[in-house]
From TrEMBL:
Belongs to the flavoredoxin family. GO terms for molecular function: FMN binding. Gene3D superfamilies: Electron Transport, Fmn-binding Protein, Chain A (2.30.110.10). It comes from Methanoculleus bourgensis (strain ATCC 43281 / DSM 3045 / OCM 15 / MS2). This is Flavoredoxin. Keywords: Flavoprotein.
């Protein structure tokens, strides 16, 4: 005799969870949700400020604090990084998605990207590299090491300082992502996405499973 199935279990939360669904392979791709939108600032030949978009990047060490960005050898930024060994990472807000996208469309070899966008190159206090003055968050980095990975070279930089606009600080004095308003990149669809509100408290919501 077949046992009758019990009632479907309903989980708490904003939506009902369902059983694992069938996964369809789409092959090996550079796909990760979400990709960051990082603006890498360097000085090029003759000291001209340059910037490029790097979606292949992120924090890679806590101590020392470090960030890694991957750059193809054909990029002007690759030459700038290997020459100067210092760089900045600027985080744009959604107000500047057009300018940020432009940084990834043209080459610094034949275009003054700052002049074209009307954005302000500001020399870092601790590194010989420019950052975008209008962008709310900036990391100043000094190259620690490089790693060759296929068509990309990964540049690992120690974060010497983080600069944040006062306007995006919360009442607690910490950067407020709701005020920064960063955006992410979908490499599959080649689209930019903004962020919603807080969904849970990190290192806290998971403890509910222990109860």
């Amino acid at each position: 005799m077949t046992e009758k199935p019990g009632p479907e279990k309903v989980y708490p939360g904003p939506a009902t969870k369902c059983s694992p669904m069938k996964k369809i392979s789409i092959g090996p791709r550079t796909l990760l949700y979400p990709h960051p939108d990082l603006i890498i600032g360097t000085y090029g030949p003759g000291g001209r400020p340059d910037a490029m978009v790097a979606a292949w990047g992120g924090i890679c060490s806590s101590q020392p604090p470090a960030v890694a960005v991957s750059v193809q050898k054909v990029r002007q930024t690759y030459e700038n990084l290997t020459s100067e060994r210092e760089f900045t990472v600027s985080i744009p807000s959604v107000d500047y998605v057009k300018e940020a996208d432009y940084f990834g469309i043209v080459s610094g070899r034949d275009t003054d990207k700052f002049a074209a966008t009307g954005l302000t190159p500001v020399k870092g206090d601790l590194v010989n590299a420019p950052y975008v003055g209008e962008f709310p968050v900036v990391l100043e980095c000094r190259l620690l090491q490089t790693v060759e990975i296929g068509v990309h070279t990964q540049f690992i930089g120690e974060i010497l300082d983080v600069k944040v606009d006062e306007s995006v600080l919360g009442p607690d004095g910490k950067p407020d992502i709701a005020k920064i308003r960063p955006f992410a990149y979908d490499s599959m669809r080649r689209e930019y996405y903004g962020f919603g509100g807080v969904i849970a408290k990190a290192f806290s919501v998971g403890k509910e499973i222990e109860k």
